[in-house]
Every structure is written in structure tokens, then in C-alpha cells.
Amino acid sequence: MLLQYHPNHQDAHFLQGExxxxxxxxxxxxxxxxxxxxxxxxYPNAHYRLANIVLYQFEDETPQASExxxxxxxxxxxxxxxxxxxxxxQDEYFNQPTKAIEYYRETIxxxxxHPYAAYDLAVLYQRMGMPEExxxxxxxxxxxxxxxxxxxxxxxxxxxxxxxxxxxxxQAPAPAIPAATSNELISALQEDIRRLEELIISNxxxxxxxxxTMVNFLPHHAETNHLIEEVKEEQPEFIExxxxxxxxxxxxxxxxxxxxxxxxxxxTADLFAANGYRLIxxxxxxxxxxxxxxxxxxxxxxxxxxxxxxxxxPFSIDEMMNSLExxxxxxxxxxxxxxxxxxxxxxxEGKLEDWExxxxxxxxxxxxxxxxxxxxxxxxxKGHIINISSTSGKEVYPNGAVYCATKTAVExxxxxxxxxxxxxxxxxxxxxxxxxEETEFSLVRFEGNTERAAQVYENFxxxxxxxxxxxxxxxxxxxxxxxxxxxxxxxxxQASFNLIDRSGRPEQLVAT
Length: 512
What we know:
- This protein is 53% helix and 8% strand.
- The protein is built from 23 helices and nine strands.
- A seven-stranded parallel β-sheet has the order 3-2-1-4-5-6-9, with helices on both faces. A two-stranded parallel ribbon has the order 7-8.
- Strand 5, helix 19 and strand 6 (426-433) form a beta-alpha-beta unit.
- Helix 6 (80-92) runs antiparallel to helix 7, helix 15 packs across helix 22 and helix 18 packs parallel to helix 19.
């Protein structure tokens, strides 16, 4: 191909970088864009294209992405998206609000209808205690992108604009597409794809015609025709030294399961391990996690990472995500399983510590995990989040007000996540089981009282943990265009929380 005979052809490197980016081969794309810059430090758009890849595909190189965006702005002061990305980095990564404000404002000057810059500027002004500026920026943001106007935002930026301190609890709506695929970039890609179709062969029958087309991009010199005559066999697409651009082997799908040491979490992990998935299993009990890891590696030859932490601790979750090696970061499925119930007292007798434990685990823990994992899915436009709720999220029962409230919250969060993430091609699902044995649910609720826990499942056949696991697995393995949003499942002998046929388990009835 062209680069074989002209390894320093800057146009060919840039176009090969774009083709590799389209194919999501980001290591290869990065190599070619860097090579383009080495050959021509002022090559149009090269710094900007490389900056987007570095920012969104190599998160440990964020400072370099900032430098690349800064250089892109220097080379092309009219690039609004480069200004915006640089502003976001100054705001969120480097904690340089003054510089961030400068570049947000320049973004708006360059692109008055930029869908996110005005809102981000409003948020930053509000955080800096500048309510009037925040209000003005929010008013502009509403005109540009009506989707940012919500009752919560109105309350923060308008009604409370004169207060000295306003807790900021909202975030800007996620961009419909990553910055790396903005409208400007898409147009450029479309044009470059057209050029690539003229440059790069796709099969043997197109070879001679493509070779002739490539001549148009070569410097005119005497040996051009000679080169074409010599090229008779199809060449590999990428022929640079493999040490510089070796592509990692594509792994199997990665699933994260919280609360994987027992019950539904363990049963779900069993099923995914048996079917060849790579597992990241989390829980609070390290010895159990070690045992599960050893079991799966021996029984299924599965790849298993174990992470010991409490989902109530957001810092531990962030530490876990930051510790993942690159080949473990592309999480395909998140099963938010960790959850519990504590106590069964009426509201006027409930223990505050029990309430806090349930709220922190069932709601906040789910939120913390989702917030940590979802950005990786959004970046790849691929992923599935499955939340484990309960019939208690659909039916409130006496003495269970707080637990039911937490599971009702899971219902709402699942629906909200679906609304936020569907435009990023992310599936969001929920499973809401009734009574499930083979778990520690009742044992935890009654603080280790085995007799009282056993009475919950007395004289009827509840669901088994494996039943719920099979449902989770079924949801996760549907075709990509299918999203099963909610599954409510109960035992045949259970119609509601208090309406249970306790005439005996089927095997007991047969025996009598």
C-alpha cells in the first residue's frame, strides 16, 4: 500500500489514522496521528483529532490531551469544540475555573449555538458564588438547548440565585454524542471516508483501480509509474512496525457484579462464569471472593478479578475503577445487585442506623457504582446496566417503609437511567423478585436470627437465587436492539408480600 512505498507521506498517515479511528482501533489511530504531527507539526486538525482519542480512550493521559487541545487552538483559533474540550478539562480536571470561564466564553463566541458551553458556564459560575452571571448563562443555555430547563435547574439558577450558597445537585444533560464525533467532526469524517475509498483497497478486484487513484496523492516524480507496475499483490492494511502499534487481543465480554459473595449475586456470577464471561466481582468479604475466584478459575477456566469494598464508599469505588488495567476497562454489563434490608419495625420504632444502612447501600451504592461505570459505556456507546430491585419497590407493606422506599427509588432510578442513557445506545434493565431463598436476605434483616429468618420461607416454595440469576442472564443476552426494562417475578405460591399460600412446598404436598 501507499505507506509501504512512502512511509513519510503525511496525508496517508492522517487518512489511515481516520480509518483506524472509524474502526475503533484507537492504538493504531493514535500512532498515525502522532506520525502525522511528527512529519508536519502544523498539519490541519491532527492535534485536535489526536487530543480526542487521548482524552476518551486513554484516561491516564488526560494532561497530554489538554496540551494537544491547547495546540489545536493555537493552530486553528476558530475550532469551537477544541475550546470547549479545553475548558472542560480546566474546569473538571485541573481545577482552573478562571481559565475554564475564559474558554467557555470563547466557545460561545465562536459557536453561539453550542449546545453545552453555556450550561457548563452557568454551573461553573454558580459553583464560584457568582449567581447573577450563573443566571445569565443559564438563560442563554435554555435558549440554545431547551433540554437543560428542568424544575431543579430553575430552582438553582433562578429562584435561589440571590442566596450566597446554593448546593449544586444537578449535572448538565450528557451530550448526545461524544465530542470526538461532533457535527464538525462527522462532516470531516464523511469527507475523509470518501477520500479513503479512493486511497485504500478493500478487496483484490479493486486493487488496480485503487493503486491508480493513489497516484493522485503522490508527489509527481519519475518512478511513480514504475512503482504501480511493481505492486501486483494485495498488501496488508497496516504495515508499520508491530512494536509501535500492536493491537491487543479482543477479550470476551466483561461483567461487573456487586454483592457477588452470596445469594443472587453469587448465582448470577456462576452463570456468567460458566458461559465464558470475564468477571469483576465485588463484595465486602475478601475470603469469600477469593474462594469464588478459585472456584471459577478451576471449574470454568474463567478470567476473574475480585475487588473488596463496600458500595457505600464512593472513594473505594473510584479507587477500584482507577486500578483497572486497560484490558479490563471496557465493561459490558453492570449488575447492581448489592442490597439489603435491616429490621422489620413500624416507622415510630425503627432504628436510625438501620435506615441509614439501607439508604446508603440500596440507593447510594447503586448510584455510586453506576456513576463510576456508566461513563466508560457512554464513551464506547455500548453497555448494559441491570439493577436488582424487589417487589417491595412496587408494593409497600407494613413495618417495611424504609426498605420499600429504597426499592421504590431503584424503580425510579432505573427509569431515569434509561431516559438519560438510551441515546448513548446503553440498555438499562431491572429485575424485581419476590421472596427468594438461598440468600442471606432474611438472615441480615433479622440480625442473624436463623429461626426467625427460616420462618419467612416456611411451608411454601419461594424463588431460588438461581431463578433470578437465569432471568438476569436472559436479559443480558438478548440482541443489542432489545432492551427488557422491567421483570417482576414471584413464586407461584406468592401473590403479594402478605398473600402467600403456605399449604406446603410441592414436594411436601406430594409426600402427603
